[in-house]
Amino acid sequence: MKRTLILFSMAAALLLGLTSCEENKISEYIICTDDGSINYTVNVLLQSKVNSVISTSDKESFQRNSFKGTESDAITWFNERMDYLESEQFANTEPIVPVLPNTSATFSLRDTDNGQNSESIVNDNGWQHTVTSRTVTFSEPDHLL
Question: How much is the pLDDT for 91?
């Protein structure tokens, strides 16, 4: 009986260990722009401002605008970034750019599932796996200088 209990306990511990490994998988994540309203598409100044928050086009911006961690933590990080892009704080941060009503864009949180070394990837090409996406409607700034 004692031997059976020990074997059962070891099997349960092993099973818990195996299932938790998948949940705690560490990956690298970036944010990509998927689509934008016509107001966003023609507003190059706003696109440039947004890119300062999400761009991973070079090594410095990749380190600043990417996230390394679990998928659930990455989703939290992504939603915080999207909340910031929608905020009046972002709208009123320098450079203040004009934003028309109903200006929106859709962004996705992506990771790479092709086994490449993520530090060598600094563009959208290797980031094929979309984890989640969200449409952001930008706030208009309080005033323009």
Answer: 96
